[in-house]
Amino acid sequence: MIDDNARASRLTAEKRPDLQLSFEFFPPKTDVMEQKFWESIHKLAPLKPRFVSVTYGAGGGTRERTLRMVSSIKADTGVDAAAHLTCVGASRDEVDAVVRGYRAAGITRIVALRGDPPEGVGQPFTAHPDGYRNAAELVEGIRKIGDFDISVAAYPERHPQSPDWDSDIANLKRKIDAGATRAITQMFFKNADYLRYVERARAAGITAPIVPGIQPIHSFKQISGFAARTGATIPAWMAERFEGLEDDPETHALVASAVAAEQVIELLDEGVTEFHIYTLNRSNLALALARLLGKRPD
Question: Residue 140 catalytic?
């Protein structure tokens, strides 16, 4: 029999461990999308997240919108905001200029990523001749410019271009040693993969937080396609739960809520106290997960 007293998810507020949440958004492309973006931000801001991050398009295609959104989030809500940054298709001088622009705008948090090539996820990465060659070099370059809080990426199922686990973990260690504050994982749906990944990292001497990246499934078809391109696995049991729900959005939403709830509650019971939620600019499932984790709006 499961002892509820031994499960963090069954503890009341005064006994529950302190949790940290962060949320990820992408820059809206239209006025309608921007309205939805701000509606979601304002619904999540009262949860007092550690930060809200805004992504950065391939080759810096959304750089100006990212800067505008991040600056506005901090000014309008008081929530700390993190700007994503990649080294795709840009020289070191160009990337450094973006970092200095972030610093001048009062942005002190950066999510530093090598980034995917413009040709798409899974295609070979070619560094700019005068650019940063990888995320570790990018982190080192950011550190030389200012005292930023830097998050980097981690891959519970191994990066698609890593030849083996030793190489993958060694790359994470280089990013942390270069000055990263924490790692945030790519989406995953098998908690055992994440827990084993953390064990590998700790065995390699990595002590920085490795925050699970949680992807609520607003559209199973969309997430399945993205998973196929990034090397994330969709478990057979999960695919079976969504089977036949393409034209039944209400049931799809209920199943999605249950799947995400199972994942975060199990991680909480395993001792995880930090979560990064990929919102896809929607707040409903993120709010539900926050409540399940014990976070309430102030």
Answer: no
